[in-house]
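To: structure subgroup
Subject: Chain for Friday's discussion

All,

I'm putting the inputs and outputs inline so they're searchable in the archive.
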Amino acid sequence: MCPMSSPATIDVLPSHRFDVGALERYVVERVTGFRGPLTVRQFQGGQSNPTYYVSSPSGEYVVRRKPPGKLLPSAHAVDREYRVITALADTGVPVPRTYVLCEDPAVVGTPFYVMEYVRGRVFTDPRLPQQSAAERAAIYDSLTEVLARLHTVDWQKLGLADFGRPGNYFARQIHRWTQQYRASETERIDTMERLIEWLPAHIPPDDHTTLVHGDFRLGNTLVHPTEPRIVAVLDWELSTLGHPLADLAYNCLPFRLRPDQFEGFAGQERPAGIPTEEAYLATYCTRAGRDGIPQWDFYIAFAMFRLSAIAQGIMGRVVAGTANDPNARDRGRRARPLADAGWGLIEKTFGA
């Protein structure tokens, strides 16, 4: 998560400190109008790339950088984040303005980029307990609008034809997340082993390619300060060319998972204003020009598998001592129940 609302900042963690003077000198030379001195604080939360709130006489900015220490292969790709956010400017997909990318680790210790600070509200609880029914309905409608807009942009015209490999997305993703899971494995999870075996053998034939976010959920968006609409999508680290139903299924996990498993409301009364999963899917399909979704539960099970692998990666960082989020251990412990949920769904739907 990369929140951008003022209260969610702390003193920079000792493990994430850097030379603020070096940052200032670098940016002053490359961003028109940028002036020091800088005040730097760190956003709370987030398990991917350390993210900093930077204030100066010239305005407010956000710096996002790779974390220090040993990293998983291909993880924490701030250069890819910068590239896709920059490409999406003026497409109708709400993203922050970008200013500069620095790939030289000698400046602040790791590569980083600078973007605008967008004012908005961060809602991590998909139940939206403090909002009215009308506001919940509008925010969920805005989620489908933004996701459908992302999945219908012309990625080739945006210069992103080499941003990923079109086709065969699920096979490649299952392989990738299996590798990531193995690299961070701290214990054997039997249901994860079954998912690793079953999923690649049962991929649906639909092989559509779009630009995908990779972590599209309410908590990775900013909602307008006073209106129930999304003004920015954040945390593009996992973005690539891929299958839109991977994004959509992950986005729909709150309908399927309990709060103790993930940010969800399954097993509880659905809050007033939040649509049913079926209605949510229908709205998305209309906006994205899609006629239904055969084998929908495969995509949900894949999303649970992938989230389990991500949780295991978090636990790996806890063990290594490089985790950023104070709740990292609890998040890492979700790997087993998420794998259990994914395999349980496959058994129920497909009789595996």
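Points worth raising on Friday:
Confidence is low (pLDDT under 50) at residues 1-7.
Strands lie at 9-10, 39-43, 51-56, 59-65, 98-102, 112-116, 210-212, 221-223, 230-233, 240-242.

D.
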